[in-house]
Amino acid sequence: MSLSLLDVLTLAFFVSVWFGYTQFARIRARSTYSLSYILRQLRIDWMSTLTRKEHQIADAALLGNVERVVTFFASSTILVLAGVLTLLASAEIVVQVLQSLPFTADTSPDKVRFKLAGLALIFVFAFFKFTWAIRQFGFVSVLMGAAPQYRSTDFSDEQRTTFARQAAKVFDQAGHEYNNGLRAYYFALAYLCWFLHPGLFFLSTVMVISVLYRREYRSRVLRALLATKDLEPGRIKLEESQNSETQ
């Protein structure tokens, strides 16, 4: 099997853009309002409120709902992986189907198997992210159970605030892992276009990046979430950035 130069360049572009965007989003979130930034602040508020509430039944139900969603994606990923591995044994049939489609580049069973193996790796990556997110959401449930009680006098306000911030950090990390798993699904959709043509693969990768960027930094839901804090999309103010880093 030998990949064309265009295939190699497009695959390299795909991998570099995926992991490059992950690093870019992590760094930019420190200086620009994003979904990651505002969700972290809201999680801190949630955990702070938790330590000052007498009953936590509603909080447990909300966390359980989030865990069920992540578990659904983890289970779905296993089913997708099973389908991809099944196709590996039927590469010749896949080639026939692809060749019957218009504008499809020349391919072979070996190339299809290679591409399917790459697709399987993407979903393996997503599965690990989802399962790690599930475990971390479990850690959050433990922290919620160990939260300072509303009527307890053994904890000062400073101790309650510290607990809330640390619990929110664990909650935030779980959310990031869940987000990374979802991001793998987005890029898997772009990867599917490689089966048709490397040029289409390139365009779909660019489209996925633009969609992810817009939703993270330019979406209406971001504006609505920021509005709960009287904020607007843009650069983070210096004092807010310092407060975020101390948290």
TrEMBL record:
The keyword Kinase appears for this protein: no
Keywords, comma-separated and alphabetical: Membrane, Transmembrane, Transmembrane helix
Membrane spanning residue stretches: 72-95, 116-134, 185-213
InterPro entries from the UniProt entry: DUF599
KW Transmembrane (keyword) present: yes
A Pfam family reported for this protein in Swiss-Prot or TrEMBL: DUF599
Superkingdom field: Bacteria
Name of the protein: Membrane protein
Organism for this UniProt entry: Pseudidiomarina atlantica
Lineage: Bacteria, Pseudomonadati, Pseudomonadota, Gammaproteobacteria, Alteromonadales
